[in-house]
Fold these 3 entries.
Entry 1:
Amino acid sequence: MHHAIVCVAMPCLAISPEDGQLTGSGLEGVYRSGRRLLACCRLRIAGREPIAVQGRSVSTGLAAFASVVRAPSGAGPDPEVAVERSRDAEGTERITLRSSAARHLRLPVEIALGTDLADLAAVAAGRPGPELPAHVHENGMRWSAGHGRGSAQAIITAQPPPHDTLASAGLLRWELDLPPGASVTLELRVRSERGDRSDRPVGPAGRGVRGLLPEARAEGDDDRSTALLETSLGDLRGLLCRDPAYPVDAIPAAGVPWRCGQAPAEALWAVRMALPVSTRLVASTLRILARTQHTGSGAEFGRLPGPLRDAGPHLPPSCAGTEATLAFPVILAEAWRWGLPECDLAELLPTAERCLHWLRRTAGGDGLLPEPGSGFLRTETQAHAHRAALLGADLLEAAGRPGADEWRARAGGMRRRFRDDLWIDDLTGGRPAAGSRPDGRPVLPLGSAAGHLLDTGLTAGGRMAPGLLDKAHTEQLARLLGGPALDCGWGLRSLGSNEPGHNPFGHRSGVVRVHETVVAVAGLAAAGHEKEASALLRGLLDASAAFGHRLPEMFAGHQRTAGSVPVPHPAACRPAALAAASGIQLLVALAGVRPDAPAGTVALRPLRCAPLGALRLSGLSVAGAPFAVRIGRLGLGVVEQAAEGLQLGV
C-alpha cells in the first residue's frame, strides 16, 4: 500500500497502482461508503496496454497518470500518442489521447471494466467476492449484488458514448479518429444508487459543509513547511465524514485504507491539533461524540465509548473510550480560548461536566485514574486526567458553575501521587515509569508516550500552572527524549531501543508514532527546551519530505544514518487524520501562539533558535477572525493580522 496512489474524499476512496491500470488485485479500486464500486479498469489502445511513464498524486482527492503508445505501423521507435489519465476519489476518470504523429490515426480503444461490489473490510482481509456479471445500462454498464436492504449496485457511464458495449466481456469500445496534433478525451463516471446527504464528501469534492477547515498557508526559508501544511490540510479535509443522523456535522476518519471509520480518541486529538485553523471543526466533532456519551445510570455514566486496543509488550490493553472521555473537556476548554462561540460552549458544556463526573467517580479520592477493569495505573492516562482536571476547572469557572476549586485541588493530589508512585528516582536523574501494576510495582520501559507529560500544566489560556512534573523532572525527561535511545533521528520511538521487547516495526514497541513526536515537540517548546524540540522537529520534517509530505501515522523506528531514508510500516494508514493534523501543530509550535479569546489577548512564544529560519503562517483563526504571524530568522515573532481589539499578551 505504501506505493499505491490513494485519493480520498470520504466516504469516497480510489486506490490505484502507479501505472493507473486497475486490475482488481489487492485493494485496488474505487470505493464509496466502504463498498468497492469498481475493481477493474484496464485501458488498451490498438490492442496493447499503454507504457506507463508516471503516476502521481495531484491533490488529496486527485491522481494523474501519464503513458505513451507507439501507433500501429509507426515509422520509428518513438511513441506517437501520449495518454493522460486522471482519476478522482469519487470515481470520475478522464482519459485524453494526444497525437504527435504526422499522419491521420484511427485507433481502436477499449476499456475492460469489472467489480465484485465487496466490502472494503473483506478486500483488506484478502477475501474479495467473485467478479459479478455486467449488464448494459445507458452509456455504460451496471452491476448488482444482493437483495433487499443488503443489495448494492454500481453504474458506470461513458462520454462520448461507446461505439460498442460487450457486457459479457465487460468491454467498452471506441474507434477514435486523431488528426495530426489533435486530442480526444473519454470520461467515465461510476456511481452507486445511494444518494443521501451522509454519503457525500465533506471536503472540496463535496462542498457541502463550508468553513469546517479553511485554507491556511506557510511561507518561509524552508519550502518544506509550505508543502507540509498544504498536504496536511488537504488530507485532513479529505478524511472528514458526515454524521449520518446529522449530516451538517463532520468528524475525521482515522485513516485510509485500514481504518476508515470513527476512532473517537484519535478524532479528538486530530481536531485539537487543528485548532489553530478551525474551531468549527472542533465543535462539529465534539457534537458528534457528545451524542454517543453514556447518559444512563450506572458506572458508565458520563463516559464516551471506545474499544480496547493493544498497548505493547509491557502494558495491558488500554481503553480508547477513557482517553476520549478525558480529552473532551480539555479540547472544549482550549477551543473556547481560541475563539469557540459562546453558543457552542453552552451546548457542549453539559457533556464536559458529565465527563468530569465520570473522572471523579472512577479516580476515587486519591486522584490517580486506574484503567477500568484492570486497576493498572498508566502514566499516559494520568497525564490526560491531570490536563482534564485543570482545564475542566477553567471551564467551570468561566461558566459560573461550581467545582473549579475542587478540580484544582484534585489536580494537586494527582501531582503528589504521580511524583511518589510513577516517577522512579535513580543515579542518572530518574525517569517516569510507563505505569504501575495494581500491587504497586512500576513498569519501567520508556517510550514516546512520555511526551504527554510535558504539557500537563499548560492551561487553556496558555498560562503555565504546576504540571505532573516539576522543573527538575521536566529537564530530565527532556534529556531522555533527546537521547539516542528514543530519538531515532526521524522522531521518537514508541519504545526505547535499549528496552526489552524493542521492535522497530512494533506499533507500540518501537515505531515512530508521528503524533506523539509532535506532542513532545510542542511540550518541549512550551517548557523552554528548544534544543531538543528543534532536533525532533527537524527530524520529522526530514521524514515528511521523504514521504512526499504526506506523513503516515507511523513508520519504522530504525536509527537514522548518513544517506538513509525512513522505512514505511506495512500497516500504517496514509493519509491518517492524526498524522495530517500533526503537520499543522508542528508548524504552529514554532510560533508558540497562545490565545485567550475571552480575555481579548494572544501571546507569542516562538522558538528563539528559529530552526526553519524565517516563517510566516497565515490563515489561522483566533477569536473568530483571520490571524497571521511572522517569525524572523532571529526568533522574533510579529503578529501581522488579528481580530480587531485583540491585544498582544505576555
Entry 2:
Amino acid sequence: MTRSDKKMEINKDLQREREKCTFNIEEMTSYIDGGQENTKKRRETEAVLSKPEFCNDSSQDYLSHTEKYELAIKQSVELFSLLRKFQNERNFSITDDDYRDVLTSLLGSSTMRDGSPLGVHYIMFMPAILSLGTSEQQKYWLPRAWSCSIIGAYAQTELGHGTFIRGLEATATYDPTTQEFVLNTPTLTSYKWWPGGLGRTANYCIVIAQLYTKGKCHGVHSFIVQVRDEETHHPLSGIKVGDIGSKLGLNSVDNGYLGLDNVRIPRSHMLMKHAQVLEDGTYVKSKNSKLNYGAMMFVRTVIVRDTANFLSRAVTIAVRFSAVRRQCQLKSGEPECQILDYFTQQHKLFIAIATCHAIRISANKLWETYNAFNEELEAGSLEKLPELHALACCLKAVCTSDSTTLIERCRLACGGHGYMLSSNLPLTYGQATAACTYEGDNTVLLLQTARFLAKTWQSLDAVKLTPTVAYLRNTREKGFLNKWENTIECIIRGMQVVAMRKIQTSVEMLEHRVLSGIPMEDAWNMTSLQLVAAAEAHCRVIILSSFYENLNRVQTTSSPELKRVLNQLVELYTVYWALEKLGDLLQWVPISQKDIEGLKLWYEQLLEKLRPNAVGLVDAFDLRDEILRSTIGAYDGRVYERLMEEALKNPVNAEPVNKTYHTYLKPFMMGKL
C-alpha cells in the first residue's frame, strides 16, 4: 500500500500525529524537491518504477547467495527496461545535467532493497566515459551503454591496493607493432577486486592500469576491456572473472574479481580525452593529471546526494515507529506513552531529520561547483579543480560518516524490531556504510582536503581565495569574534574560528617538524591526526553555512509556517554541532559556562518545538512504501500486523516439526546420540 490508497486504515496514534502538523506537508515536499514541477516528475517516475513486480520481496532474505542474485537480475532487467523507456519518452540526452536526472530517478526511486547488479553500469561505467572519453569514443560507446546493449563495470580497486591509486599493479603495455595495449595483472594482489556487476553481469569493464609505452611508465589510465562474449557471455581468453562472495550489505550486487593474462585491446580502447598514446607509442600527457579522476569526482557528487536518501529512509521508519510504539509510563496511572514523547528519543531522531536537509543542500552546492568547473574546463581553465577536488573529498567523507552514524542510531532507536531485516534498517545501514569506503576511504579523503587547506594557508596573503576557503582570511583577524552570543550567526563564526585555528596549528606543527629535520613525508604522517581534524572542521563550516544560507534564500518564497519549521531545523542542526564540538569552542572562542547552559536549554526547547511536527517532517520526504520496504515504517503504521505477516512467510514455519528434531534433537534429549 501507499499513501495514495484512500482505503488504507491508519494507526490512530500516527493519524493524530499528522493532525498536529503545523505546516503544509506538500509545500515542504516541493521545497525538498526544488519545486512543484520536480515533485511531479519524481512522482511520475516512482509510479512507474514502484510496481509490485519490480519490488524486492522480503522473502529474499531466506534465499541463497545465488538465488538473491538471480532474483535481482530478473527485477533489475524489468526495472531498467522501464527506465530506458522513460528516458526515451522524456528525450533525455547523454549530458551531465540529464544524466544526473537519470541517476536521481535511479537512486532516489529505487525499489531494490539491497542494490542492483546494473547499478555500477549507470553510476560508474557511463560517467567514466563521459568524463574521460573523447567525443569519438563517447559517440561509439555511450549509445550502446545508454541502451544497455552492453553492460559495464568499473575496475579500479585491487586485492592489494584501494585508495592509493598510484600504487595499482595492473599494467597496460602498448605494442606499436599491432597498435594494441596488452593488459596484465602480474601478481595475486594486482587482481581487480570489488567492481560491482563484474562478478556475473557485465560484459565490458573500464580497467584502471599503469600505462607503459616505449619502456616508460606514465601512471594510471583508463581502458575499456571486453571481459565476456556478447553472445554467449563466457569469459574471453586471458580473462579470469568471478564473484567475491557475501558481504555486510549489497548482496544482490555481484561484486567481482578480475585477472588479466596478456589481454589485448585496440589502441582506441584507452580513454583519451585528457591524455593520449599516438600510433607510434608517443605519450601526450594531460594538462593536469587529476583530470583523469573526473569520473570519481562526478560519482562523489552523486554519493553525497544518495547519502541523504538513505538517511531519509531510515529516519522516516524510525519516527513513524516511535509514534506507534508505546513503552512505559511518564506518570504513574497513565497509559504507556509513545516513545516519541521521550526527549532521549527525540535527541536520537530529530537531528537525523535536520541532517537530511543539510546534506541535500550541501550536495546541491557540490553539484553547482562541479558544473562551474566543467564550464571553465571547456574554456581551458583548471582554476577551480583544486577547490572542487577538496570539496568533493571532504563532503563525501563527512556526509557518508554522519549518515551511517545516524542510520545506526535510528536502528537502535527502534529496539529489537529495528534489528529485524524486515524493518529494512539493517539493509539500509549495510548500503550506507559501504559508501564510507568506496570511492575513497574517508580518512584518506579528509587528508586530501587537508593538503589543499595547508597549501591555501601557506599562501593566504598571496592568492585570491576560492569561495569555500574565503572565511580563513577574515577569521584570523583580531576582533573577529571578541564576544560570544547564542545565535546561529555566532555559532557559525565560532566554527569558522575553530576550523581556521585547526588548519593554522596543524600547518605550524607540520612546518616545525620539517624545520627540525624530519622528512616531509614523515612529518605529514605524524601530523595526520591534526590534519584530518582540520579538514573535518572545515567541512562542518561548509555544511553549516550552506544550510543557513539556503534558509535565507527561501525566506521570501515560503509560507510563514514552513519558514518557522525550517528555521527550527537549521537551529537544531547548528546548536547540536556546537554542543558536539564544545571542546574546540572552549579552546578557541570566548564561550562561557553560562553560554553553554544556554545552548543546552535552547537545544531542549527546539526538541519540544519540533515534536508536534515530527511525523509531518518525515512524511514530507514523500517516500512510498515500495521504496521504504519496511514492516515498521509504512505510512499506515500497522507495525505489529506487518511484523507478524512477515514472520509467517518464514520457510521454517511451513512445517510444525523440523526433520532435525528426529535426527538430532530428540536423540540428544533422550541421551541416545
Entry 3:
Amino acid sequence: MDRDRLAQALMATFLEELEGHIAALNRDLLAWEKASSTARAQELVGSLLRTVHSVKGASRAVSLSLVETACHRLEEVLAAPRAHPPPPEVPELGFAFADALDDARQRLSRKQDLVGSPLEALLPRLSTAAQGQPSPAVPVAPPAVPPPPPEPPARTAAPAAEPSSEAPTAEALPVRVSAQKLDALLARSGELRVSSLRLEGRAEWVESLREELASLRARLQGPEEASARRLETRLGQLSRELLADRLTLSQAVSGLDEEVRRARTLPFAEACEGLERTARDVARGAGKQVRLEVHGGALELDRSLLQGLREPLLHLVRNAVGHGLETPEERRRAGKPPEGRVALAARLFGGRVQVSVEDDGRGLDLDAIRARARAQGWEVPEGVAAARLIFRSGLSTATQVTSVSGRGVGLDVVRSQVEALRGSVDVSFLLGAGTRFVLDVPLTLSTLRVLLVTASGQQFALPAESVERLLRLAPSEVRDVEGRQVWVAPDVLVPLTSLTAVLGLPAGIPKARLATVVLAAGSLRVALGVDEVLAEQEVLVRGLGSRVRRARHVSGAAVLPDGKMALLLHPGSLIRIAEGMPQATLFPAASTKRVRQRILLADDSPTTRALEQSLLEAAGYEVLACADGAEAWERLQRVGADALVTDVEMPRMDGFALTEAVRTSPRFSRLPVVLVTARDKPEDKTRGLEVGASAYLVKSAFDQTNLLETLRRLL
C-alpha cells in the first residue's frame, strides 16, 4: 500500500474511533455534573483523562497537531486537584471541547482544514484554564494501554492509539469491517433469499409437469405408455431433488441472514447516544431541569434502523424538553418534583419495533393547536384526533421562534423520516400529566412480507404487517357518514375509498363486490378498494434511488421471486391522504328510475324542514314533509316512499326509533334511511348505523351536495 492510501486508511480509522470518544466524553461529563460523591467524581475524571489521552495519541498518529495540543491542554485542566463538586465552568469547558472536537471530525471527514475551526478558537480558553490551576502534587497518569473506546457504528473493535509492548494473540486480534461492506453483504443475502423462493417455484412447476404427464400416461398404451412412465419417474426424482436443494439453500440462506444481521446489530442505547446532552442543553437554555431515562437500551436492532431513528429521536427529545416540560416553579405549583422526566423506551412487537418518547410535562394544548390550524385554513378534526395536526408542516404553538421551536418543522421531519423507514408515528397525552410519542418501525429494512394487489392494471406491494383484514364488500355493507363512505367494523367506522383514487390513477370498472384491503397504521384505519388481491410473498426491498426517492406514497421497490418489481406503498401515507379524500365511485351505478322519486322528510324544526324540502324539490324529488317521527311512520305505511330523510331529536318518535321501526318492517326493511342530525359524537354515529341507517350526516358540517350525492347513490 502506498503512503497516500495508508494515510487515508489511518484517517478513516481515526475518524471512526473519534466518534466513539466524543460520545464517551459527553457521557462522562454529564455524569460528572451529577456525581453524588467525591469518589465517584474522581472515577469519572479518571475516565475523562483516559479518553482525552486516547484522542491525543491517535491524533499524533495522523499528524493532527491542533487536536493533540487541545487534548494536552484539557488534560492539564482535568488533572488539577479541586473540591467536589467542580466549578460549573470546568464541565462547560469540557462540553465546549467535545462540541469543537465533533466539528473537527466533520470537517476532516469532508477533507477540510481545521484553520479557523471552533477547536482552534477554543485553544486560548483551554490554555488560560490550564495556567490558572496549580499543578497536582501527584499527577494522574493515564494507563499505558487505555481501554478500548465505545464501539463505533460498524460494530467492531478499534485498535488502541498507543499499543502496549505485548502484542495480542491471534485469537484476540480485533477485526474492523466497514458499514458499507456489511450493507453490501446483507443485500447479497437478500438476493439469495429471493433465489431460494424462486427455486421453490421451479420445483412446484416440475411437480405440476409430472402430474400432467401422469394424466397423459393413463391414456397411452404399449411402448408409449412405458416411455411416459420412465419420464414420469425421472421428473418425480428431479422434483424431489429440487425440493431437497431448495431446503438446503433455504437453511444456508437463513443462517447467513442471521449471521449478517447479528454483525449489523447495535443496542438501542447506541441510537440514544448524545440525547442526554441535548436534553441538558435545551433545559439549561430554558431554565428547566430534566432527567433522561433509557429503557430497553440493550435491545439489539439493525444498524441502519438505528441510524434512521437518530434524528427523529433528537427532535422528539428537544420537543419534550422545550414544549412539554414546565419550569421548576410551574412544576412545584402543579405538585410535581422540580426536575422533569423524559423517558425513551424500545420493545419488540411481533416483527416490528415500538420506540416511545414520553415526558411528564403539561401535555398538549388542543385549543392552541386547533387555533393555529384554523389560522392556516386547515380542516380541523373533532376530539383528540386534532392532536395529530402537530405532525403537519407549518404548525407550531410556540409564541416566538427560538433555536428549539417556533418554525413548525420539527415534528413534520419526525413523521417524514419515520415513514421513510416504512414506519408510523402517533401521539397521545394526558392534560397536565405528560405526552407520549410512539414510533412503530419494521425490525428489518432489507426483506419484507408483502401483500400484492392490482389497481388500474398495475401491481403494487403493501406491507403485510399493516394489512389488518381482507374483505369483499357489497353495496349493502357500505354506509354514508358525513358525506363519506365507511365500512362498519365491529368497533369502529373505517373510511372507504379506492387505491386508484388515492394514487391518482384512472379508475377501473366498478364491480358488484369490491376487493378491499383494510390498512392500519397505529390507531388509524382505512379500507382501500383494489382491482384484485394476488398473493402474499416475501420480497427483497430496494431503494428507489435519488431521482425518485420522494415519490408520493412509495417507500421502495419490492423485488418479487420471479424477478419482477412492484412499487412498495407506504400505509401511513395512504391512510393520511385517504382520510381527507372526496367520495370515490366504488360500485356500479344503479339504474335510473323513470318515475319521479318520493322522499319522506321528517324534522321538527319548521325552518330546517322548509330548507331541506326546497333543496330536495329543486333536485327533482317529490317531498312529503312531516313534523315528527310518528307522523312520518304513519305516512310511510299509508303512501310509501323511495327514501327517508329524518332528524334524530323529535317528539313522539325520534329518528333512531323511526329507523329501527323501518328496519324491522318486512315491507320497508330495504328502504334507504338518511339521518341528518346535530349529534356529532362517535357513539351517536355508531348507534345510528347499528339501528340500520344507510347514511349519517351531521348538521354542523352539512353541505347540501352531501345530501343530494348520498341520495343519488342510495337510489
